[in-house]
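Mods, move this if it's the wrong board.
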Amino acid sequence: MTIHTTSRLSRTLMTGYGMLAYGAFLVVFLYAIGWVEGLVVPRTIDEGPTVPTAVAVLVDLALLSIFAVQHSVMARPWFKRRWTRLVPPPIERATYVLFATAALALVMWQWRPLPQQVWDVETLWLRVVLYAVSLGGFALVLTSTFAIDHFDLFGVRQVIRNQLGMPAATVEFLTPRLYRIVRHPLYAGFLIAFWVAPTMSVGGLMFAAVTTVYVLVAVQFEEHDLIGTFGDRYRIYRTQVPMLVPRRRRVSPVRELSRP
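Not the wrong board. Structure tokens:
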């Protein structure tokens, strides 16, 4: 049975919960940027408890697997249908964000470093350029979320609408500018951020490689769901816009793709 809570107190509690989940995401995401880049934060991807190499590899792969499974399973429509029998629909997305944030925090907390260097760029100006490009990848991630609906993606819009007594927003198929260059600019941003590194350790290389595999698999599940939701509109869009790497000569999506 689906739980429906409509009292003012319940709506206020759900709004607070959604804001808490969003705040936790911001803190952990910003920390993760420093953790990957090796900047500012007290502990980075190449720092932490020292263990034998084989143990470190197994632990890190297990952590990344937990992260990947959480992201993939909780995002699927069949899981959402069952999950919202227990979790009120207005906070379903916020709960996903909270679990995803916890999974990312767990990765960084329990990560076992493999600090041996694979490459290290010593030329100062080139290091600065590489850092700028990598940080630009993270900027692309955030820009991609705002290009569609940042606050809906992270569960804030849902709890605010619920607080105001408004129904859930209709799902729309939008193709803002970034999404006319590649279908998944958010994933592209992560790949840029992880791979463009002035110093790459074995641990960093494993992190980048595993997350790349995850992205390539996750895209297939995500696009399957999008086809299920939008049908031929998404099929046409997929033939016209590349997945992650822009084409040299881009073909704009047909106008009908701007709205469902």
